[in-house]
Amino acid sequence: MNCVSLRMITDDVARLVAFYEQVTAVPARWATPDFAELVTPSCTLALASTRTLALFGQDVARPAANHSVIIEFRVDDVDAEHRRVSSLDCEIVQEPTTMPWGNRSLLFRDPDGNLVNFFTPVTEDALRRQER
Predict the structure, then answer these.
(1) Same domain, yes or no, for 34 and 89?
(2) What is the pTM of this model?
(3) Which residues contact 81 (CB under 8 A, 6 or more apart)?
(4) What is the C-alpha separation between 52 and 48, in angstroms, rounded?
(5) What is the edge-to-edge ordering of all strands in the sheet holding 70-74?
(6) Beta strands 70-74 and 115-121: pairing type?
(7) What residues make up the domain containing 75?
(8) For residue range 4-29, what is the model confidence (pLDDT) as tens digits?
(9) Which of 7, 104, 108, 131 would give a disulfide with 78, using CB separation of 3.0 to 4.6 Å?
């Protein structure tokens, strides 16, 4: 089994796509005005309108209501990304911090309030875990 995609539901696909294009420097691939994907080498971030929920059934997801998932991107230099992301219109939740498990981490929120973590493994143990 291989986890290949994360899909987020939003009331404003264009706004969220523009934000993630800025944050990741990955251009979106639009399938319809209600669905776009940002494809990275290891995973795809899919962004879909609440209108797509009708295809799955009633009340299966709620936009801007996430309180348990953090979207994580491994980056080369968390501190450099912090300087870049700080110029965007987003809430910085945690300044770059080296976590007990060996990752240097920057936590911020996207326009829908979802948590985003940029991290860089900085200890030997953390680097080893990322090689898997």
Answers:
(1) no
(2) 0.90
(3) 75, 106, 118
(4) 7
(5) 70-74, 115-121, 103-109, 92-98
(6) parallel
(7) 70-132
(8) 999 999 999 999 999 999 999 999 99
(9) 104
